[in-house]
């Protein structure tokens, strides 16, 4: 029996996968039907990205630039972040604080406590390949604003008695700029700010942050909660009792 075009396509894809199985980890092959209109496609893509169903991706779809911009600059994003903050606070109130300063809540920084929206506005809202040089130039300016919802959440958790630890993928040589930026927009009272040192370079975000959490546990800290905009902030090993992801459709870090 002759093979159908569909059978041939499936066999061809399987053959390519066998040649280079890592291809599946570099980008998502999941595509929505072409008949879906642009607005619905982009809403659905954003949901798939936020729920980690889209797999690894490098840039947002070019057809979704306006949709992502409208979302980030509109009321829906503010509502989404505020609802998540409310859920975090509701959970945090159920945690029995021991009083020994060992009950930790971890926060990521970029797109979690600080918004780099002004940088990404100038770079297609994540539709352009990431340029570490221009991004680092932005970071050292120390002008990233706080999210209103994250500042509210941060202060609520401090008031409840959690020890706050900041765990970021920024480099150690950006410490002073980062600390100044955080204080300028209203954050204070964190126990530690953990940044990538020379030995952490080249380590994936998931492994780097897992290793840092593991060290905290070895010191006797109990990681009650963790909040970040990337799944790599939350997954891996030595995870928190409860983790909360805040929305960020602009980029993906593995």
From TrEMBL:
<keyword id="KW-0325">Glycoprotein</keyword>
<dbReference type="InterPro" id="IPR014403">
    <property type="entry name" value="APS1/VSP"/>
</dbReference>
<dbReference type="Pfam" id="PF03767">
    <property type="entry name" value="Acid_phosphat_B"/>
</dbReference>
<protein>
    <submittedName>
        <fullName>Acid phosphatase 1-like</fullName>
    </submittedName>
</protein>
<feature type="signal peptide">
    <location>
        <begin position="1"/>
        <end position="24"/>
    </location>
</feature>
<keyword id="KW-0758">Storage protein</keyword>
<dbReference type="InterPro" id="IPR010028">
    <property type="entry name" value="Acid_phosphatase_pln"/>
</dbReference>
<comment type="function">
    <text>May function as somatic storage protein during early seedling development.</text>
</comment>
<dbReference type="InterPro" id="IPR005519">
    <property type="entry name" value="Acid_phosphat_B-like"/>
</dbReference>
<comment type="similarity">
    <text>Belongs to the APS1/VSP family.</text>
</comment>
<keyword id="KW-0732">Signal</keyword>
<dbReference type="InterPro" id="IPR023214">
    <property type="entry name" value="HAD_sf"/>
</dbReference>
<dbReference type="InterPro" id="IPR036412">
    <property type="entry name" value="HAD-like_sf"/>
</dbReference>
